[in-house]
Structures are given as structure tokens and as C-alpha cells.
Amino acid sequence: MATLTHTNYEKATYPVEGMTCASCASSIESMLRAREGVADANVNFAGKSVQVTYEPTIVNPNQLRETVKEIGFDILIENQTQEQLEEREAKAIQDLKLKTIVAGVLALPVFILGMFFHGHFAWGNWVMLLLTSPIVLWAGQRFFTGAWAQAKHGRANMDTLVALSTGIAYIFSVFNSVYPEFFLSRGLEPHVYFEAVAVIIAFILLGKYLEEGAKNRSSAAIKKLMGLQPKTVRILRNGAELEIKIEEVQVGDRVVLLPGDRVPVDGEVAAGTTYLDESMLSGEPLPVQKQPGDKVFAGTINQKGSVQLIAEKTGGETMLAHIIKMVQEAQGSKAPVQKLVDKIAGIFVPVVLGIALLTLLSWIMFGGQAYLTEGFLSMISVLVIACPCALGLATPTAIMVGVGRGAESGILIKDAESLERAHEVSAVILDKTGTITLGKPTVTDVVWSDEAAETKQLEEYFYAMEAQSEHPIAQAVYNYYKEAGAQVKQPDHFNSLTGMGIEADFKGTRYYAGNHKLLQQHGVTIPEELEQQTITLQEDAKTVIYFADAKQALAVFAVSDPIKETAAQGIKAMQDAGIEVYMLTGDNKQTAAAVARQVGITNFNAELMPQDKADFVKQLQAEGKHVGMVGDGINDAQALATADLSIAMGQGTDIAMDVAGITLMRSELTQVAAAIKLSRATVKTIRQNLFWAFFYNVICIPIAAGLLFPFTGFLLSPMIAGAAMAFSSVSVVANSLRLRTVKLK
């Protein structure tokens, strides 16, 4: 890999054409990484793409493309719309389908002639040669051109295995058909293997066709997300309504949204009122009312009403585009286990070539010329059956489906490493505010003293005082009365008393709003009934605000940050999964204890600073636990970065989401348990796939080489080897697709 002396690099993802196996991916990666100016390159074989990190002042996309083309592949560096990419993909699959059908139709009579009527007709070999040639030279051409491009650089891949096995058998059969006397004069039978060549190529093409269809289904989630953006947009320009392509919308354009339309851009409602279905972002099934000044996001659906929006973010800047990019990058990233698999795949083909040659030499050495035919067939079987496709597909297909499944459920996974790490989590740390609670303090209780008269007038005074304060709790009171339609009155005098509350004068009377210390300092008495109510409210983890005149307390207001409806359910789901749950908060111990009690958490710490949270993460890690941290604010960023797995609430701050490996769009704790369950299911699938891929090769290669022949007389036909190879790849992809049906809750 080229080493860069500075970090002014760009990261780009390009579609790749021409890949047929994991060794292809390995070749592309190593060629790109060897290029000066390239910091890293990661190929997603299942997703048919490459992610390149490069220094644009040293190397450009055209040079990257030339590097890849040298070994027989191509990358699409031009900006391609999703429709154009899908058209190219559909055309390639259609071409593969045609070649598969033609190869199958021509291979059938060759198979019948070669297997059941061999030697019965003098013209039999010529007919088989005539039918097999189009299969080799047209339908299977891709294998030979790919193998040659690799060979020019001293590399080998699946194309090499197929090209060598079928090419040698085809040339040998043509030679024996044209010049049979060469072997007859030496007392040997001039065998032909046209049926093996034809059927092998037909089977491999069929396997590739089925594999492509399965891989397309594995990327269904990303296509579904891309389908959320409309193709055209109605806008108002110079007083006229125009319909333009989505790519032509500019920031500041006035977009017209009719009932049933999908929102094309991120923006702000300028005129009109409507309800939007935002379930694709929040998971909330109920439509959300939107009025002038409210924010809207691309991909959401307009339910009722016509509105006009001012476009603020378009194209790749919208939240939907960021989600799509995040999912694409995650699907293209590599899990740690994949790096080991890549190393194995990189040396696998050369090792197989060696085994195939050793197989032929062993047959001749131990059996003599009499077993030349068996040795030849065994060598071909080894070359065909050992294709590393299943090995290359085992991890990326599971990652693609797992990441896509998460995206559909509102779980955005940053990279494959985060998805793989989540299954190891044994302890989860939860921030309180915004994670367990809503993070929006609200007035929950209002208790007036029996001696308070004209409470309506007093409420107006209290509202006016809190409207002057900038304290978060004062904001909760302000919002409470604003929603009730109260009118703000201007006090004759106002003063903020740091750490205690506020004071104000109305019509010559002084009033106080604040904590117990404020009343105590000014000699204000608290009636017995309010004192009792205060104790009860504080036991429920509510913050109490007193409202008083110069003599006595008139009312108690309780403000609380409500616990999320699904918090207790999510915490129980984690505990049922064998995960220890901890709560850390900067709030006071009494409030923390009350919240912990209500949601079923026994382990909690209060009055912590951001550094304290990060230190607690390290403490658990020192005890051998794999720690997951869930938070939503800047104060959680340090702990999120320290944890083994970081999970951010989607409604939290951008910095928390940037640090986090997983972002929960619904901001519900049930999603944490769901993310861990998805990770466990994905890792289980990867292990199943890798076991099958390795087991298949470990068992099949010796059998193909003829290991059982001395004991049982069984020799694996190259045709069966071709079918087995195709089946192994399709079975691995099919197993990965089962992740789409995993129940996460």
C-alpha cells in the first residue's frame, strides 16, 4: 500500500465490471494499493464495487481506471444515475442469461453423444466439436480473456481455473479428433472430452446467472432507499410552475408539494399546512403535522394538503442521501474476518494450480500411462471444483443483507466492523437524558396552596417571570403556558438570582420563582400541604419549582424529563439477551435512582462529567467486558469513542452520530437490542457460510483428485464438479438472504 505523507485525500466508490470471484477482488485491491497516491482500496465482491481512498494531486480516477483495466476489469468513474447503473446491470445479466441458455441447449446433445453414444458414430466427434466450439469461443469467452489478462501480470483467479480446465480438455479433444493416429500408433485410446467441456461451462454460467440474481436481491434494501426519492419535482420560478428533473433543483427553489407526493429535498415549509409520513426516518407510524417554518426531509410522504417548501439541501446533501451513502459504505466495508478470508483467497488459486498439476503427475507416477485418462479427468475436476467463489461470497453477502436489513428497520450501521463487533457486546452503558428519557423537560404537576386566591392572575405572573428566564426548566414552564394560550405580561421589575431562581414585581407586590434555598433566604414560609407534595414529587425524580409572594409559597410546579415509552422494554430485552445494563448521568443521585428504578436498572452512577463516563467504559473493559455505549449528546462523544461499540440516537447531535458505529433513527432502546440481535444473526450466518465454503473445498478437492479411487473405484466427473461448484456459490448467497427474514423484536 502506498504511504501518504499528508491526509488531503478523497474517498470514492466506483462500480466494478468483470469480477467473477474473490480472487478477482483481491487482484483489483492489490493493483490499486500498489498505485502511487492510493492510501487504501477495498473491493466488495458481492456489491460489485470498489472504495478507493486516494490523493487527488498524485493520482486521478482515469489513472485508477487504467490500473484496473490492465488486469481485465473496469471501473465506472463517470457519474452514473441509478437508472443507468441498473440498465447496465440488467444488460449484463441479460447477456449472461443468453449465453447460459445457448450453452445449455448446445451442451445437451454433446452430453448425450459423449456419455451414451461414444464411439457409435464415426461422425460423433466432429458433431461434438461443432457444438462445443461456440460454447468455448463465445459463451465461455469471458473466462479465457479474464485468465489471459491476469496471466500477463503473473496473477490467477477463478477464470484461470475454468480456462485451464476447459481449455486444456478442449484443445486435447480437438487434437484427438483431427489427428487420432498420434495416440493409436502408441497403443492408446484417443479420448475426447467435449461433453465435459460443454457441460462444465454451461453449469458454471448457470451458477453465475443464479448467483447474480441472488446478489441483486441482497442489495434490495439500498435500491428501496434510492426509490424513496422522486425523479421529477414541481417548482415555482418567475411565477410559473415548472416540472424539472430532481438533479436540476437548486437551493432556494420554491418546491410545490401535492397530496401523495414524496418530498424531493430537505427544506422548510413556506406556505400551507399538511401531514407527512416520516416513518422512513423516525419509525413513527403516525403522520406529523407540518406548518410554515417546520423542517421536512427528502423521502417522506405528503399525506394531505398542498404546501410549498423552500429547498435547503438537494441531491447528495439531503438526509436521505446521507443515509443511502452510509448504507452503501457499510455494505462495501469489510469485517475483520473478511481480511483473513481475502488473504486465503489471494493464495488459494495458485495453490489449487499446484494441486491440479500434482494430481496429474501422481496418477501417471503411480498408475502409468494406463491411467493417463483418469489423471487428466481428475486434474480438470480439481481445477473446476476448487473455484473460490463461495469463499469470496461468504462474508460480503451476509454483511450486505445484514446492513440492508438494519436500514429497513431504522438501524444505520456505519461499517462492517461495527456490525461484527456488536455480537460480542456483554455490557451496555446508557446515558440518561435523551437516551432513556425524552430529553425534553415538561411540566407534569401543578399544586396550588389552599390559601392562594385568584390563581388565574397568579399563573399569568408566573408565566411572565419564566418567559424572562433562560434556564432550561423555565423554558419548560414557558412552553407549558404557551400551549395553554396564556398571555405574557411585563413585570415592573425583574432580577435573576444565580443558582436560586428569579424575582419580579407586579403592581407593587414581589414574587419569587425558584428552589427551596431562594425561599429560605428571603424568609418565605412553605405551607404544610405544599411541603408534603414537594417530598412526594421529589421521590418521583421530579424537579420542584416554588412560586411565592413575599410572605409564603403559593404553588409548587413539578418539571420532569419523561421516560420514553419503550425504554423499560428495550432494557429488559437487553437483559434477557444476557447483557449487563448500566446507566450513567450527570444528573443528581436522587433523580438517577428514581429513573433507574422505573426502567429496571440496578447499576447506575450519577453526577458524572464526560471524562468520568469514558473512564467508566475503560473500567468495564479492564474487567474483560465488551462495552457498548449508547448516547445522544456532545457530552457522550468521548465515551462513545472509547467503547468497543458506539451507538447514537438519531435525534441526537451530529457529533455523537459521527463518532458512533451504529445510529438508531427511531431513538428507541428497543432498537439497541434489535441491533445486537441483528449482529448475532449476521455473524452466525457468516460463520455458517465460511464453514460451508472451507468444508466444501477441504472435502471436494481430495475427492476430485481421485483419493477414493484406489479404495472404491469412484472418480468424480468434471461435469459433476462443475455442478457442485455452482451449487456451493448459490447456497452461500441463499443462506445470507435468510437474514432478510430475521425477526429483530
From TrEMBL:
Which spans are transmembrane here? 98-117, 123-140, 161-179, 191-210, 344-366, 378-404, 690-709, 715-737
How is the protein disposed in the membrane? Answer: Multi-pass membrane protein
Where primarily located? membrane
Question: SUPFAM superfamilies per the record?
Answer: Calcium ATPase, transduction domain A, Calcium ATPase, transmembrane domain M, HAD-like, HMA, heavy metal-associated domain
| Domain of life the protein comes from | Bacteria
Q: Which UniProt keywords apply?
A: ATP-binding, Cell membrane, Membrane, Metal-binding, Nucleotide-binding, Translocase, Transmembrane, Transmembrane helix
A family per Pfam: HMA
Has UniProt tagged this entry with the keyword Transmembrane helix?
Answer: yes
Keyword Iron belongs to the record: no
What are the HMA domain coordinates in residue numbering?
10-76
Return the InterPro entries for the record. ATPase_P-typ_cyto_dom_N (IPR023299), ATPase_P-typ_P_site (IPR018303), ATPase_P-typ_TM_dom_sf (IPR023298), ATPase_P-typ_transduc_dom_A_sf (IPR008250), ATPase_P-type_domA (IPR059000), HAD-like_sf (IPR036412), HAD_sf (IPR023214), Heavy-metal-associated_CS (IPR017969)
Q: Where in the cell is it found?
A: Cell membrane; Endomembrane system
State the family it belongs to. Belongs to the cation transport ATPase (P-type) (TC 3.A.3) family. Type IB subfamily.
Q: What is the name listed in the Swiss-Prot or TrEMBL entry for this protein? A: Heavy metal translocating P-type ATPase
This chain's source organism reads Pontibacter populi
